[in-house]
Specification:
5-stranded mixed β-sheet, 9% strand, Cation_efflux_TM, 8 helices, elongated, Alpha-lytic protease prodomain-like, Alpha-Beta Plaits, alpha/beta, Cation_efflux_CTD_sf, ferrous iron transmembrane transporter activity, 68% helix, cadmium ion transmembrane transporter activity, 296 residues, 5 strands
Length: 296
């Protein structure tokens, strides 16, 4: 079993544990804000399951029906997570509205906050693990899950502060107000995750710094060629697709042109792990005198 699959399964177990702890905190206090925090954790469990399914699909090798692989499945998972976050936010707003109309004093608020604090600490540690490992492996489903958990940590801290302030002041209306604040915050988080994932589904180019790395590698390693043009990039899960036209002198043999391409591909894969690089070789009369200038 790969490390990625283990992390995805771990997310499910951590999500269930954190949800149980948060539900206990809500049961102890009756707090609408703590209930909203627990409701968000139900999304964590559901999206962790979706992420596991997406990762398993994305790891399948290319086949006749999917010659470019299955990596796009991870973007669908991240979009689903964004949608579920928004749905959870709307449910929280409904609960907050009811609490605002009828604010009540909380039972055992300090005990409930301590219990909720344990869940927050667990989420913080696991979120850091997911984001770190997800970025290293270039797995957007894990990164999206980790980013959402970080949002959960921030909102949990805000909820704790609001409940504590309500307890100290006796202004119990702060409890539903804090729940509404949680909903607005995770609405923003969900929309951001959806935007990032949709950009992947729309074949958005790699970030500018990665693009500059690609250009520099081609310029440095394509000795024997004349220029490279029509460079295009996109990413799908952990795979980065790079394609371009490479112009070589007309007298260049097929063997020599192939050697140049092999050298460039090897350097690009080293600079951009997981890259797939089709190169179209053209003779010198196809020069555009634009694009990437070969240094040697």
């Amino acid at each position: 079993m790969s490390t990625t699959i283990k992390l995805a399964i771990g997310s499910i177990f951590v999500g269930v544990i954190v949800l149980a702890i948060k539900m206990l905190a809500w049961w102890l206090t009756g707090s609408v804000a703590l209930f909203s925090d627990a409701l968000e954790s139900t999304v964590n469990v559901a999206t962790a399951i979706a992420a596991l399914i997406a990762i398993r699909i994305a790891m399948r090798p290319a086949d006749a029906s999917h010659p470019y692989g299955h990596e796009m499945a991870e973007f669908f998972s991240a979009v689903l997570e964004g949608v579920m976050i928004i749905v959870a936010a709307l449910l929280i707003l409904r609960e907050a509205y009811g609490g605002f109309l009828n604010p009540v004093a909380l039972d055992l608020p300090i005990e409930g906050l301590l219990v909720n604090g344990v869940a927050t600490a667990i989420n913080a540690v696991w979120a850091w693990i997911l984001v770190t490992r997800g970025r290293t492996a270039k797995l957007p489903a894990l990164v999206a899950d980790g980013k959402h958990l970080f949002t959960d940590v921030v909102t949990s801290a805000g909820v704790a502060f609001g409940v504590l302030l309500a307890t100290i002041t006796g202004w119990w209306i702060l409890d539903p107000l804090m729940a509404a604040g949680v909903a607005i915050n995770i609405l923003w988080s969900g929309s951001k995750i959806m935007k990032e994932s949709l950009s992947g589904l729309m074949d958005e180019a790699v970030p500018q710094n990665t693009l500059e790395t690609v250009r520099n590698v081609i310029s440095r390693e394509a000795g024997g060629a004349m220029e490279a043009h029509d460079l295009r990039t996109r990413h799908a899960g952990s795979t980065t697709f790079i394609d371009f036209h490479l112009v070589v002198p007309g007298e260049t043999t097929v063997f020599d042109a192939h050697e140049i391409c092999d050298r460039v591909e090897a350097a690009l894969v080293e600079a951009v792990p997981g890259a797939k690089i089709p190169i179209h070789v053209e003779p010198d009369h196809k020069q555009k005198h634009s694009g990437i200038v070969v240094l040697a």
